[in-house]
What does this fold into?
Amino acid sequence: MAQPGDGSRFLVQQRLPGGSRALLWEFPGGKVEAGESDEAALARECREELDVELEVGRRLWEGRHTYPDLTVELVLYAARLVSGEPRPLGAHALRFLTPAEMTALPFCEADIPLLDDLVAGRMELSR
It folds into this structure.
């Protein structure tokens, strides 16, 4: 999710301490439940973990990463904040950052290819 009025900053969250990949940074989202579309899952996860309502747009990027304990499929969507102010209900911290600023933070391994593509400008981000 890009910060309103500033298309160059994106919302990232720091994972909670004590769990897997504790305190690493990632792009918000979560698991897709049975019978749920990717877009619906993103809207639900952001409602539950950030207390915001989104309008989910087109798919911008996708990738897959295998950790020793699980395989994740990451999909980046254009999204617009419809209501609410992001709050870290399911995260340790939230920040709106440019891709260059994100490179200074420790990110989850699965998010690194996405971050690399954002930094290199290899994605068309307009809705």
In short: The chain has one domain: 2-120. The chain is about 20% helix and 35% strand. The first helix runs from residue 38 to 50.
